[in-house]
């Protein structure tokens, strides 16, 4: 059990997974020892920096969420991945760990032997999905080896298929950089990109917004983020009242506390950007070794925050629009008599920001706004639908926050409800077929990334331009 726990800890640490992949790639490229050392450490340190920034963001979002609940008298369920995973681990720890290891092995085998070349590197999200699968499969009457095998197949398959579904959008976001979305909010991001393509023009990017010279300081992402969040925090602090805010601030002046939290939030975002640059600077070159020597044409699927640096303005717009969408969704649920899903600031920041980036890539400013607003609605409705399924296991007070968790949980839960255990086994079989069939079909792209001829031509031009510098 001790060895299994050690491997579980390693496999749930994205930083170590990225370092391991970079190490394998650099060894495959036969780089000298000192370059292998630095090339392995930098992605690890970069992801730890990203994680430190994310933790700092979460820490300073917590009082904002509490002030909003108090100030506007909102009561309901706040989706939180970490909270429900900690509850589930108490009764499903062994199953979750076994599904995680099985799923990661299957993902590597899929990348090696099928046209789905995506290696999912966001270990903590794989862990969360393993936890969800262990819960819903147990509810569906599975246990032991069958539960682990089914969970591992679904986790491994979805880890390869979900990046492929929207890779054509991801390539637009990254201007052709060979990374993929490795985050289980992915379907909502692709929906945001689709919405963006219908409501706006990609050339009207948020990053091209013209700012008068006297407002030039707003081009600094740290400054613009801090100013935006100061407004949020001040409104929430005033609504909650000085007496309540004092209970959060350990006696510090309420307005000063709110302003400092807003500025710390901006610092957290800046730390995330620095970590992202360190990851991309060393992981992508090292991954060439894996792509050429170990798993031909392999593409790393990475955390959503890695994409923040591609469109910093869309990050702020996406967060705000998604949060507004979450409030609207909560109000609609209230009118319909459903459980109120209170907009969680953590999922709305990370998922909303990413949805804004994807919406911007296809529809510019309007795409970022409307795409992430739709994301906010989805983050209200899907957790509300998932809640009854998880309630069967005694998790009535919380639910998963990100979109893919809700979709996978609902598909398995509803399939079992209508078709029984045979229907759930059918889902696993359908995923296996989806992975195998393309191997026998002639496709233009080696990595099955859904790129049209027009997209491919544009991306080739971008790549050629980059090679000049």
From TrEMBL:
<feature type="transmembrane region" description="Helical">
    <location>
        <begin position="12"/>
        <end position="29"/>
    </location>
</feature>
<keyword id="KW-0598">Phosphotransferase system</keyword>
<keyword id="KW-0762">Sugar transport</keyword>
<dbReference type="Pfam" id="PF03611">
    <property type="entry name" value="EIIC-GAT"/>
</dbReference>
<keyword id="KW-1133">Transmembrane helix</keyword>
<keyword id="KW-1003">Cell membrane</keyword>
<feature type="transmembrane region" description="Helical">
    <location>
        <begin position="118"/>
        <end position="136"/>
    </location>
</feature>
<feature type="transmembrane region" description="Helical">
    <location>
        <begin position="253"/>
        <end position="276"/>
    </location>
</feature>
<dbReference type="InterPro" id="IPR051562">
    <property type="entry name" value="Ascorbate-PTS_EIIC"/>
</dbReference>
<keyword id="KW-0813">Transport</keyword>
<comment type="similarity">
    <text>Belongs to the UlaA family.</text>
</comment>
<feature type="transmembrane region" description="Helical">
    <location>
        <begin position="367"/>
        <end position="390"/>
    </location>
</feature>
<comment type="function">
    <text>The phosphoenolpyruvate-dependent sugar phosphotransferase system (sugar PTS), a major carbohydrate active transport system, catalyzes the phosphorylation of incoming sugar substrates concomitantly with their translocation across the cell membrane. The enzyme II UlaABC PTS system is involved in ascorbate transport.</text>
</comment>
<keyword id="KW-0472">Membrane</keyword>
<feature type="transmembrane region" description="Helical">
    <location>
        <begin position="91"/>
        <end position="111"/>
    </location>
</feature>
<feature type="transmembrane region" description="Helical">
    <location>
        <begin position="223"/>
        <end position="241"/>
    </location>
</feature>
<dbReference type="InterPro" id="IPR004703">
    <property type="entry name" value="PTS_sugar-sp_permease"/>
</dbReference>
<feature type="transmembrane region" description="Helical">
    <location>
        <begin position="142"/>
        <end position="161"/>
    </location>
</feature>
<feature type="transmembrane region" description="Helical">
    <location>
        <begin position="418"/>
        <end position="437"/>
    </location>
</feature>
<feature type="transmembrane region" description="Helical">
    <location>
        <begin position="41"/>
        <end position="61"/>
    </location>
</feature>
<protein>
    <recommendedName>
        <fullName>Ascorbate-specific PTS system EIIC component</fullName>
    </recommendedName>
</protein>
<comment type="subunit">
    <text>Homodimer.</text>
</comment>
<feature type="transmembrane region" description="Helical">
    <location>
        <begin position="297"/>
        <end position="321"/>
    </location>
</feature>
<keyword id="KW-0812">Transmembrane</keyword>
<feature type="transmembrane region" description="Helical">
    <location>
        <begin position="327"/>
        <end position="346"/>
    </location>
</feature>
<dbReference type="GO" id="GO:0009401">
    <property type="term" value="P:phosphoenolpyruvate-dependent sugar phosphotransferase system"/>
</dbReference>
<dbReference type="GO" id="GO:0005886">
    <property type="term" value="C:plasma membrane"/>
</dbReference>
